[in-house]
Amino acid sequence: MNKGDPRRPATAIFEMRPPLSQQEKDAQNLDYWSMLCFAFAFIGIFARYKIALWISVVCCIASLANMKSADGGLRAMTSSVSMSFLGLAMAYFSPNSHLYN
């Protein structure tokens, strides 16, 4: 039997994680709305679904609304906003717009 055997409560060792610093918490805090925006934009552009592009715009707006600091993910937000709106522009104003569902 090794030390900390859970079958013997007297020898069990309970360990607790040290509390995370604010910087580590921010690193773990992912922007799920931005990821959904990218995913739906790719689906909308490559599978040619207008509804996926509109969902991408909604996710992009939700990501902007839930952003904690203005400088947090400026490059990611710029690319997701541009991807979703350019996808909509392609769906409605391109010469092949009749191919989009």
Number of DSSP strand runs: 0
Sheet having the most strands: none
Distance between the termini: 64 Å
| Contiguous runs where pLDDT drops below 50 for at least 5 residues | none
Average pLDDT level: 78
C-alpha Rg (nearest Å): 22 Å
Question: SSE string, helix = H, strand = E?
Answer: HHHH
Measured as a percent range, the helix fraction is: 55-70%
Which structural class best describes the helix and strand composition? mainly alpha
Question: How much beta, percentage-wise?
Answer: under 5%
Could you please describe the fold and organization of this structure?
This protein is mostly helical. It has a domain of 69 residues. Helices cover 58% and strands 0% of the residues. The protein is built from 4 helices and no strands. Helix 2 runs parallel beside helix 4. The relative contact order is 0.14. The model has no long low-confidence stretch (mean pLDDT 78).
Compact summary:
Helices cover 58% and strands 0% of the residues. It is mostly helical.
Write the layout of secondary structure elements.
Blueprint: H1 22-28, H2 32-47, H3 50-65, H4 74-93
Helix pairs in contact: 2-3, 2-4, 3-4
Subcellular location: Membrane
Transmembrane segments: 32-62, 74-93
Main location: membrane
